[in-house]
């Protein structure tokens, strides 16, 4: 029995290491485009989840292994088993000086027209930097279609900034997937892919990137790192723009910050459950260790 327990512990530790590596890569990928590897709220999330889990472990007779392992797995589980679901909250924060650039979204569309953000009639513009050759971009397309169907009548407009190489291929893809919003694409030499003037001017160095822009000011309200967070983020941005006049929001100096709380919920729940499982399950299966006696 003891050998089997050791094998299971080793397997769980390896699984935990792989999951943590996967989660770390996703986090770095999401926030690298903002030139911030691990933002403050990610450190705060780790502190809260692991702290609560450590407290639960201490109350369960120091069941730290089960608590911390389950907490780490809990933070990762939503990305694996609930890839399209997310809940979170938003708040207004001071805009960094390097994020105060107005967005000049102007360019030719694949349909043969021309798009200019100044002519945008909506209250909020979703700028989707993407390409048909980008796997995560295509995988996130259902989220963009969802918010278009749900919020377009409430003031949301969408424009795609395509980094594709072939305009005809893009046109066929747009038709096949019934994407009703305009797609900007440059076909001149030196303006293709990441040399796209709009992407270059707005420092887009990774796709997909989803920017919510207020059309009148041209300022980014917020950048959505994960497509699954798009639904509640768009709702929060539209609610904010509808409640207060643009001048009161001071959007030139403030931006909307978003925090997903699903990892908190799953992480803390996992930590508590893991501590209880180790206390009432794991230790019951493990062979008892003989007590050492001092021989005089």
Please, could you describe this protein's structure?
By secondary structure, this protein is of the alpha/beta class. The protein folds into 2 domains: 2-87 and 261-285, no CATH class; 92-260, Glutaredoxin (3-Layer(aba) Sandwich), CATH 3.40.30. Helices cover 48% and strands 16% of the residues. It is built from 10 helices and 9 strands. The protein has helices spanning 2-32, 40-59, 64-81, 135-139, 141-151, 167-176, 197-201, 230-243, 246-249, 262-285; strands spanning 88-94, 106-108, 114-116, 124-130, 156-162, 183-184, 209-214, 219-224, 254-260. The strands form 3 sheets. A 5-stranded mixed β-sheet has the order 6-5-4-7-8, with helices on one face. The protein is elongated, with a radius of gyration of 24 Å. The two termini are 33 Å apart. Residues 28-38 have low confidence and may be disordered.
Give descriptors for this structure.
five-stranded mixed β-sheet, Glutaredoxin, two-stranded antiparallel ribbon, alpha/beta, single chain, 2 domains, 9 strands, 296 residues, 10 helices
Q: Could you name the CATH class of the largest domain?
A: Alpha Beta
Strand content: 15-25%
Topology-level CATH name of the largest domain:
Glutaredoxin
The number of helical segments is: 10
- The topology string of helices and strands comes to HHHEEEEHHEHEHEEHHEH
Q: Could you say what the CATH architecture of the largest domain is?
A: 3-Layer(aba) Sandwich
Portion in helices: 40-55%
What characteristic shape results from the CA principal axes?
Answer: elongated
Q: If you average the pLDDT, what whole number results?
A: 78
Flag low-confidence runs.
Answer: 28-38
Q: Care to count the β-strands?
A: 9
Radius of gyration: 24 Å
- What can be said about the biggest beta sheet? 5 strands, mixed
């Amino acid at each position: 029995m003891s050998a089997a327990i050791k094998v299971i512990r080793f397997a769980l530790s390896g699984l935990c290491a792989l999951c943590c590596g996967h989660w770390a890569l996703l986090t770095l990928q999401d926030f690298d485009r903002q030139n911030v590897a691990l933002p403050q709220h990610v450190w705060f999330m780790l502190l809260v989840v692991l702290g609560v889990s450590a407290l639960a472990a201490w109350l369960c007779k120091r069941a730290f292994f089960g608590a911390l392992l389950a907490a780490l797995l809990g933070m990762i589980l939503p990305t694996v088993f609930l890839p399209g679901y997310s809940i979170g909250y938003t708040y207004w924060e001071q805009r960094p000086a390097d994020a105060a650039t107005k967005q000049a979204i102007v360019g030719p569309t694949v349909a043969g027209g021309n798009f200019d953000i100044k002519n945008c009639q909506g209250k909020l513009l979703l700028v989707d930097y993407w390409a048909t050759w980008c796997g995560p971009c295509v995988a996130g397309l259902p989220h963009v279609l969802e918010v278009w169907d749900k919020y377009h009548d409430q003031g949301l407009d969408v424009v795609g900034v395509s980094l594709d190489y072939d305009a005809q291929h893009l046109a066929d893809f747009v038709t096949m997937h019934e994407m009703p919003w305009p797609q900007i694409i440059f076909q001149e030499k030196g303006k293709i892919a990441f040399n796209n003037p709009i992407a270059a001017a707005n420092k887009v160095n990774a796709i997909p990137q989803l920017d919510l822009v207020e059309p009148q000011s041209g300022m980014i309200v917020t950048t959505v790192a994960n497509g699954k967070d798009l639904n509640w983020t768009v709702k929060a941005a539209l609610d904010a723009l509808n409640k207060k006049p643009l001048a009161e929001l001071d959007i030139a100096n403030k931006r909307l910050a978003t925090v997903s709380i699903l990892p908190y919920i799953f992480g803390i729940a996992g930590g508590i459950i893991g501590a209880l499982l180790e206390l009432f399950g794991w230790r019951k299966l493990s062979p008892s260790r003989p007590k050492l006696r001092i021989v005089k």
